[in-house]
Design goal:
heterodimer, A: 396 residues, Peroxisomal Thiolase, Chain A, domain 1, 12 helices, 15 strands, globular, B: 400 residues, alpha/beta, 2 domains, ten-stranded mixed beta sheet, two-stranded antiparallel sheet, 14 strands
Chain lengths: 396, 400
């Protein structure tokens, strides 16, 4: 046994660059829309990567703004919404919370005034009197990795098992951790929420300089993953949540079913394709549809397709939701769990947005939306350093 | 019938020793590594002490990985396990990496150096600093990913960033994974590398650190924790080998009470302990490795919860808290605590609480004070409680 089985999704919610209503987002995916745009958060005109896919708008006003930044607040919003929609009777010690987040980011708005007058030597000489003393007493709480997890547990009264998992495959890790908790019986319902933004200064800097992110000057110039001219991802951001329950407990409330796996291979950049493929092999049950990692590098894309073909066969259908939404880091897997479920239930598969010249190779990259009668699909997420996640989504 | 989870290997690098045996011997003598911070200027800081690893390390930029690698190598070498790569998992408690103070300062200068972040300048002038903020250096998952490659693990890999409960929570995850059959062998533990200006300032401003410079869990003089650093790992396996200990109980809970303060009723902590003990079945707890942060409220709440949970069995139990000697490793804290509990079970050595000389009446427990206490211990309980009210408890027992 290499995974902990499948669990039912009984509620979900999301915030993506294409909207916060899953049905509406699916319609935009089916229309082949892309969220890539000039960076809406800051002037990125001098960055190597100038485009981004950002969530429109801001989190709702909340007292938690004192302790949690924007993406964590989005994560808390979707978590509470998903739980309310699930109808789960589990609460208190039988309700678990499993968070996935990409990692801490420097909060430059706070740091710049503090560092302004410092000398900057390696010993941080005089740093307290020259700036650190100006920091707000709660500054540390913004850097508490489990701040959103903790505050959401208070808001929803979840007192059971729970973790905050981290990294660019954190969504898959969180889904797996929640499934394990349900399988061992430590909770009866697991609220899984994940959030991440790659649209941060140092992340864009790193992704751009490493060549992982697109340097296209305009959205129209972005080349899709699995295109023979592909040249980098579009950094994006998202928050998404699902409520998982054991299938027998969910009964008619089951919207879909998920199983998940996550691993890492020590690669400095993206994981080796065979790493993801081996996870896919562990979860696959005759599936013929896969949402790929969509790293938009001809060499990586080709290697991924070859590795997946060994698992799924050469004619499996290849999707790339992140071609539309942007790469979503640690939030990817939970977004995939929701949107793939929506697509399968609608019987419609979205095209790889912007794909004009699919590169040669196995699998069938989807150029146009098409109907499907399939009831299940696999989804890959991949991030640095060497982090891989795979989930399987099935609809009743 | 759940699979058994045996402890096959141990490793640690601490401020008191480059290996677990060296650290254990120093801990048994009641020594403390807490001392003044000298490697950067702490003038004016609310707290000016720490427990830092004094030994040379390989990487300058990512101290987490350097520490974790040393402890993991030691544990892996001792374990002498063999399993197919896809049957080996890695579970690590770790927080995000941070560039050094110097690098962060340089990034701020690349952004103009003023009070506001100048993106136009940053986009051009920070390019030479890109590798220092690459995911391989700053991702919380970088440690687990690197360790997986190092030991050839291709099974489940998980990074838990659950503040002070991370390391113990990772061992809980590893235990669950082996029990469920997701893997047969797991490297599990945690690392903390937080003796740097930003963490000392952040925790200091929050009022969490000792302004007296004392790490003395359960002592009447305690006034906050002291930041420490180090890494501790164990190798767990479904096969016993020649091991003498196994994990028999594991539980995690959430307080759902407050972002920084524990629930004063101790409900979450108590449920974690009871959950682990109930999971273990019939065991005689002889030693408790407490979370024991040396903060006013946490220690009092934990002591009361331990008294309630152990009840009539309390007189037969002894309690130690390693943070008195090694400071608080944050993400690594629960892992080093686990090794201390393991020592009690395997060797009958109950490690003391360094710094504890005047037990607080609010924290009355059968503390181990001074030097180690030697007695047979059938089973030991480990606690790790985090900011945000995340709790993890484990029971380790002599193999039947």
């Amino acid at each position: 046994m290499t995974h902990a089985g499948r669990m039912a999704v009984t509620g979900f919610a999301l915030r993506t660059p294409l909207g916060d209503d899953a049905g509406a987002v699916l319609r935009r995916l089916l229309a082949g829309e892309r969220a890539a745009a000039p960076n809406a958060h800051f002037d990125a005109s001098t960055y190597t990567c100038r485009l981004a896919a950002t969530i429109p708008g801001a989190p709702r006003p909340t007292k938690h703004r004192k302790f949690v930044k924007r993406m964590g607040l989005f994560g808390m919003e979707v978590g509470a919404e998903a739980l309310a929609r699930s109808g789960t009777p589990a609460n208190g010690a039988r309700l678990g919370l499993f968070c996935g987040y990409g990692g801490l980011r420097a909060h430059w708005d706070d740091l710049m005034p503090v560092l302004e007058k410092q000398a900057g030597d390696e010993r941080a000489t005089g740093a307290w009197t020259q700036g650190f003393s100006l920091l707000h007493p709660f500054w540390m709480l913004f850097h508490l990795s489990n701040n959103a997890h903790a505050l959401l547990s208070i808001d929803v009264g979840g007192k059971g098992d729970g973790t905050t998992t981290a990294g660019s495959n954190a969504g898959a890790q969180a889904l797996r951790a929640a499934i394990v908790a349900l399988a061992v019986g430590s909770v009866d319902a697991a609220l899984v929420f994940a959030y991440d933004s790659l649209v941060e200064p140092e992340t864009l800097l790193s992704l751009g300089m490493s060549g992982a992110a697109t340097n296209a000057p305009t959205p129209a110039a972005v080349v899709a993953p699995y295109d023979e001219r592909a040249a980098g991802i579009v950094p994006g951001e998202a928050a998404a949540a699902v409520v998982l329950e054991r299938p027998d407990d969910a009964g008619d409330r089951a919207i879909s079913f998920v199983s998940a796996a996550a691993t890492a291979d020590g690669a400095v950049d993206f994981p080796l394709p065979r790493t993801s493929a081996s996870l896919a092999a562990a979860l696959s049950a005759g599936d013929t549809i896969v949402d790929g990692a969509a790293l938009a590098s001809p060499a990586r894309d080709a290697a991924e397709r070859a590795a997946l073909a060994d698992v799924l066969g050469p004619s499996a259908t290849l999707l790339a939701l992140t071609a539309s939404t942007g790469q979503l880091g640690g939030a990817t897997a939970v977004v995939q769990a929701i949107l793939l479920g929506e697509a399968l239930r609608a019987g419609a598969l979205p095209p790889i947005a912007g794909l004009e010249r699919p590169s040669e190779g196995p699998l069938r990259p989807l150029v146009r939306a098409e109907e499907t009668r399939a009831r299940s699909a696999l989804a890959l997420s991949a991030g640095m350093p060497g982090l891989a996640g795979v989930l399987r989504v099935e609809v009743p | 019938m759940k699979r058994r989870v045996f402890v096959r290997g141990r490793g640690a690098i601490t401020p008191l020793g480059e290996t677990w045996p060296a650290s254990r011997d120093a801990l048994a003598e009641g020594r403390s590594a807490v001392g003044p911070v000298r490697h950067f200027d702490v003038e004016g800081y609310p707290s000016q002490v720490a427990a830092r690893v004094p030994f040379p390390l390989e990487e300058a930029e990512d101290r987490r990985l350097a520490l974790a690698r040393r402890a993991a190598d030691e544990a892996w070498a001792e374990a002498k396990v063999s399993a197919a790569p896809e049957r080996i998992g890695v579970f690590v408690g770790a927080e995000s990496g941070r560039a050094t103070y110097g690098t962060i300062f340089a990034l701020s200068r690349a952004a103009g150096g003023g009070a506001r972040f100048d993106h136009a300048r940053f986009g051009e002038e920070a390019r030479g600093l890109a590798t220092s903020v690459h995911a391989a250096a700053v991702s919380p998952a970088a440690v687990a990913s690197a360790l997986a490659a190092r030991i050839g693990a291709e099974g489940p890999v998980e990074t838990i960033s659950l503040a002070c409960a991370s390391g113990a929570a990772a061992i809980v995850s590893a235990t669950q994974a082996i029990r469920l059959g997701l893997c047969d062998v797991a490297l599990a533990g945690g690392v903390g590398a937080d003796v740097d200006p930003f963490m000392l300032v952040g925790f200091g401003l929050l009022g969490a650190l000792s302004t007296r410079g004392l790490s003395c869990p359960f002592d009447v003089r305690r006034d906050g924790f002291v930041v420490g650093e180090g890494a501790a790992f164990v190798v767990l396996a479904a096969e016993p080998g020649d091991t003498r200990a196994e994990i028999v109980g594991a539980a995690r809970t959430l307080d759902a009470h407050h972002l920084t303060a524990p629930d004063p009723t101790g409900d979450g902590a108590e449920r974690a302990m009871r959950g682990a003990i109930e999971d273990a079945g019939r065991v005689n707890i002889g030693y408790v490795q407490a979370h024991g942060t040396s903060t006013q409220l946490n220690d009092a709440v934990e002591a009361a919860a331990i008294r309630r949970v152990l009840g009539d069995a309390l007189p037969d139990v002894n309690v130690g808290a390693v943070k008195g000697a090694l400071g608080h490793w944050i993400a690594g804290a629960g892992a080093i605590g686990f090794l201390c509990a393991l020592e009690a079970v395997e060797e009958g050595v109950c490690l003391p609480t360094a710094g504890l000389t005047e037990p607080d009446p609010a924290c009355v427990l059968p503390h181990v004070v001074g030097a180690a206490l030697r007695k047979p211990v059938e089973a030991a309980l480990v606690n790790a409680f985090a900011f945000g009210g995340a709790n993890a408890s484990l029971v380790v027992s002599r193999c039947a």
